Amino acid sequence: MAHDPAIGIHDLSFATTELVLPHTVLAAHNGTDIGKYHRGIGQRSMSVPAADEDIVTMGATAAAPVVARHGTDGIRTVILATESSVDQAKSAGVYVHSLLGLPSATRVVELKQACYGGTAALQFAIGLVRRDPAQRVLVVASDISKYELDSPGEATQGAAAVAMLVGADPALVRIEEPSGVFTADVMDFWRPNYRDTALVDGQESIGAYLLAVEGSWKDYTERGGRTLDEFAAFCYHQPFTRMAHKAHRHLLNHCGYDVDEDRITRDLALTTAYNNVIGNSYTASVYLALAALLDQADDLTGRAIGFLSYGSGSVAEFFAGGVVPGYREHLRTKAHREAIDRRRPVGHARYRELHGHSFPADGGDHRTPAETTGPYRLAALRGHQRVYESLQ
Ligand code: HMG
C-alpha cells in the first residue's frame, strides 16, 4: 500500500516594511511610561509601511526569494491570506503572481478569517498537496495592522508578510495530524468594510483568545494529539508578545501544571524576537514566531513544535509540527535579520501622516511618493486601478 508522504513547510521567508517607529518615540509623544510598552505588552518597535508599500509589495518581497530558490515548477496554487485586503473582488494574490512572473497555469485565491487566515491557507495547501503530492503551494500571509491613533491598540500596530512553500517531503517542518479547531461567534475585534482601522474591545479580545486556546486544545487532545511535555517550544499568534505569555500560562494552568515564569520563558523565549520589533502582522504573526524560533534555536531536529493560531471573531487551531533533519541548511536567518535591520526610523509626525494616507475614491491619477527601497512598489492608483512596479 502506498505510504502517505509527510507534508509541510519546505521553505519560509518573510518581509516587512521600509520604516520603523520605536515605542520610545510613541511613548515620548503620548506620555505613556515606556515600561508599559516594553514589559507590559512586550513590544519595542513597530513596522510602518511607506506610502508606496502595501500587502502586495510585502507579499511579493517575501515570496521572491522562495521562487528564486525553487523555481516556479510545481507551483500550481497561490493562496494569499490577509485581513487588510486592497480589493473586494480581485485577490491580492493575482498581483503577487504577476510581480513574481508565475506561470498562467496557476490557481490564485485570497482567504480571510482575521489572523487565523494564514493557518487556514497552510491547512488548505496541505490538502491540495495530499491530493497531488507533486504540486507545491505558495502560501503568502500578508497584513498591515492599523488601529485608531491615540487608542490603546495603537501600540500594537505592525506589518509583515510571510511566504511559505508547502509541499511533500518538506525541508523545514512536517505538519502533523490531528489539529484541534475551535469557532465562537464573538465581537472582540472586527473591521467593517467602510473602515480603515479595526474596532476592538481590548479586554474582551484577550478573554476570547484565552477561551479559544482552551477550546482548540480540548479538541486537539480529544483527537489523540501530543501531550504538553512533548513540545520543545510553542508558537502562538502574537498580537503583542506578552499575549503569548498570557496564553501559555492559561494553557499550562488549564492542564493542571504548576506554572512558573521559567517554564513559560523556556517554552516561548525564542519565538518572540521578530514580533517584538515588528508588531502585529495578523495572519503572518504565528509564522514570524516560527521563523524566530528556527533562526535562533541551537538544534530542534526531530523535536515537536506546538502552534496556536487565533483569529478574532473567532477561529483558532492548535496543531503540531515536527522539525526535519537538516533544516538548518535551508533557513534564511541572515536575510530575516536584514529585513528587520534595514528599516529606517520614521519621525512621529510622518508616521501620523502615513497613518491617514489613503487614495481618494475619485478614479483619478494619484502617484505615490517613491519611498521604499524594496524590490516592489505601489506606484499609483490610475482609473481606480492599482499600478505596481518591480524595481529589480
Ligand atoms: P491597555 O488597556 O491600554 O493596557 O491596552 P493595560 O492597561 O491592560 O496594560 C497592558 C499591560 O501593561 C498590563 O499588564 C499592565 O499591568 C502593564 P497585564 O495586566 O495585562 O499583565 N503595565 C505596565 N507594565 C510595566 N510598567 C508599566 C505598566 N503600565 C501598565 N508602567 C490592550 C492593552 C491589549 C487592550 C490594547 O493594546 C489593545 O486593545 N490591543 C489590540 C487588541 C489585541 O491585541 N488583543 C489581543 C487578543 S485578540 C487577537 O490576538 C487578534 C488580533 O490579532 C486581531 C485578529 O485576529 O485579526 C488583535
TrEMBL record:
Instruction: Give the record's keywords alphabetically.
Output: Acyltransferase, Transferase
The residue ranges of the Hydroxymethylglutaryl-coenzyme A synthase N-terminal domain are 8-169
Hydroxymethylglutaryl-coenzyme A synthase C-terminal domain residues: 179-252, 269-324
Protein name according to UniProt: Hydroxymethylglutaryl-CoA synthase
What's one Pfam family the UniProt record gives for this protein?
Answer: HMG_CoA_synt_N
Mind listing the GO biological process terms from this record? acetyl-CoA metabolic process
Stored NCBIfam families: HMG-CoA-S_prok
Q: Which residues bind (3S)-3-hydroxy-3-methylglutaryl-CoA?
A: 33, 147, 246, 280
Which family does the record claim for this protein? Belongs to the thiolase-like superfamily. HMG-CoA synthase family.
Q: Which molecular function GO terms apply here? A: acyltransferase activity, transferring groups other than amino-acyl groups; hydroxymethylglutaryl-CoA synthase activity
Q: Which InterPro entries match?
A: HMG_CoA_synt_C_dom, HMG_CoA_synth_N, HMG_CoA_synthase_prok, Thiolase-like
What broad class of enzyme is this? transferase
EC number of the protein: 2.3.3.10
| UniProt-annotated catalytic positions | 83 (proton donor/acceptor), 115 (acyl-thioester intermediate), 237 (proton donor/acceptor)
